[in-house]
Amino acid sequence: MGGPVRDALLGRPIKDLDFCVEGDAPALAQRLAVELAGQTVVHPRFGTATVLAAGSRFDLVTARRETYAHPGALPRVTPSGIRDDLARRDFSINAMAIQLPGEPSEVLDHWGGLEDLRLGVVRTLHDKSFIDDPTRVFRAIRYEQRLGFRIDEKTLGHLKDAVDRGLVAALSPDRLRHEVERILEEENPRMALARCVDLGVLQAVHPALNDLDKLERLSVGAGSEPESPPGKPMVYLAALVSDLSAQEGEELIGRLNMPEGWRRTVRDSIRLRGMVDELNDDSLSPSGLVHLLEDVSVEAVTALELTSVDTVVKQGVHRFLTELRFVEPGLDGRDLLQLGVPPGPLLGRILSRLRDDVLDGRAATDAGRRRLVRRLVKDSMAETAGKPSSAEAIKDAGHG
Ligand code: CTP
């Protein structure tokens, strides 16, 4: 039932199977796990269970009726039949089931889901659906954009009404983050994010999340929607927040109760925007580029590459991501010790200087690199010998 039936009817790949049981789902799950030599995870409070067996997983829920004490509250659940279970669903396309045992062609469809699949429409089952559960605002947009459907007009009216009444803004930080995360994880988050901005949904999360142009550039910049740049969800998050002020970034972090990885992405993306003038300089050396970008998260840098309108910035950042960040100094610590570099901070400084020279093409050969090391050691020794120790300097000052 639900998503798998929808996807099977659309000929899309099916993820995990969901089963609805008119009876005790956890008990059935336990029996199945024994028979399939698998395991069960039971959530007795919700009458649900997950079976893990033979490398696959499926969920079983006890057919139930749901009522909501107030908008945004978690539902009160009472056991019931499949009809009630389907009636508590978000959209008609998710409110279908196939009876077992039976013919796959016999789809239980009390809400016109088959017709809506045919028409390509996302439609709620009743007028209060978004009031019962405002997270459905995000879900409607996700399905619409993922499936290339359109939200039915009346449904869209109720969706906008829920946003206007502040129901999205009133969701808890964790529930909001979960919905934002599910959008960021979509195959094509850009369209869903743009639709969220279009409908004022992201602005309900934070008013500064309103830049449609930048979302547009996320694809224009790359020539095509990036299929899976590394850490794609975080790349999209970085792109979304890069124009926020540092304070707005912190507000958003709190608003979504962001975990560490998200926080770093947001802060780095905002910090990186402050470096754009320096990056927009075609005389910037490769080592200069690396010094600017090396401690910024790769996702934030990728987002800048995709959204920047400055060719110099775009090219520099692209070169950093694809080539410069992987450049090594050419010699390692052991080589340096052999060349007479004493262990300690000088060794680290020489390695870093070596890498800069390799990056800037000044130490292209092994012999050249070794020459550079010997010279740096000599200079450093001369410097130490020439400098009075701090004790001597104080003594000298006293005599003066
Ligand atoms: N559901 C709902 N209202 C919600 C969340 C879920 O009615 N706020 C119902 C829908 O019928 C949905 C089912 O619970 O089909 C399972 O939820 P989920 O796993 O989020 O949906 P899928 O359809 O499996 O979504 P996806 O394809 O994105 O995994």
Write the layout of secondary structure elements.
Blueprint: H1 3-10, E1 17-21, H2 25-35, E2 39-43, E3 48-53, E4 56-62, E5 64-67, E6 76-79, H3 82-87, E7 97-98, E8 107-108, H4 113-119, E9 121-122, H5 129-132, H6 136-147, E10 150-151, H7 153-164, H8 173-184, H9 189-198, H10 201-205, H11 212-220, H12 232-241, H13 246-255, H14 260-273, H15 276-279, H16 286-293, H17 298-307, H18 311-322, H19 333-338, H20 345-359, H21 366-386, H22 390-399
Parallel strand pairs: 1-4, 9-10
Antiparallel strand pairs: 2-3, 3-4, 5-6, 7-8
Helix pairs in contact: 6-9, 9-11, 12-14, 12-17, 13-14, 14-17, 17-18, 20-21
The structure holds cytidine-5'-triphosphate (CTP).
Residues 2-3, 15, 89-90, 94, 133, 135-136, 139 line the site of cytidine-5'-triphosphate.
Describe this structure in a few short sentences.
With 400 residues, this protein is an alpha/beta fold.
Verbal overview:
The protein is an alpha/beta fold and 400 residues long. Helix 6 packs across helix 9 and helix 20 packs across helix 21. It has a four-stranded mixed sheet with strand order 1-4-3-2, covered by helices on one side. Strands 5-6 form a two-stranded antiparallel ribbon. The protein has a two-stranded antiparallel ribbon with strand order 7-8. The C terminus is likely disordered. Among the domains are: 121 residues; 64 residues, no CATH class. It is built from 22 helices and ten strands. 34% of the residues are buried. The chain is elongated. Strand 7 and strand 8 form a beta hairpin. Cytidine-5'-triphosphate (CTP) binds next to helix 6.
